[in-house]
Amino acid sequence: MAVLSGRNLMIISRIWNRWVKDGNTERRAGSFTSSRDDRHVTYMALMEPPPESKIEIEFFVSPKGDWRQLVALAKLIAPSFQSQMSGRFLKVTVADDVDYRALSKWLESSGVEFKSFMLKQDRPVKVVIRGLPSNTEPEEIKAEIETEGFKY
After folding, report:
1. What superkingdom heads the lineage (predicted)?
2. Burial class (CB in 10 A: 0-12, 13-18, 19+), 90
3. pTM exceeds 0.70 for this model
């Protein structure tokens, strides 16, 4: 449908997700799709699971000495290991968090200089609470957050 309408697939997907979220699948005046196309999009969205996104986690390694031996050992530790020279750094990608943790631990224990980013599930949750009276005690807020199941 995206090809037929001349729209980007991501735009069509975003519109569809908004329709589903709002519960509004009514046609609008001036719609760029036919009702047959709308039925097809509805059918495809309900019948086909969304494609799984491919997540790649990156490391930037400062290769020193025999970096080819480093790559060979890293491939044994993280089977999804892929590398490419990017300037003076070796850009390393792994496919999942298990390989990320194993490779990160091994690089640290080997004394290799590297930079990586925290995994999304390891990042702390940051919350802004608005609309509370200024005389609300912080202990009350913490207790309420804990009753909702969050840990800090």
Report:
1. Eukaryota
2. buried
3. no
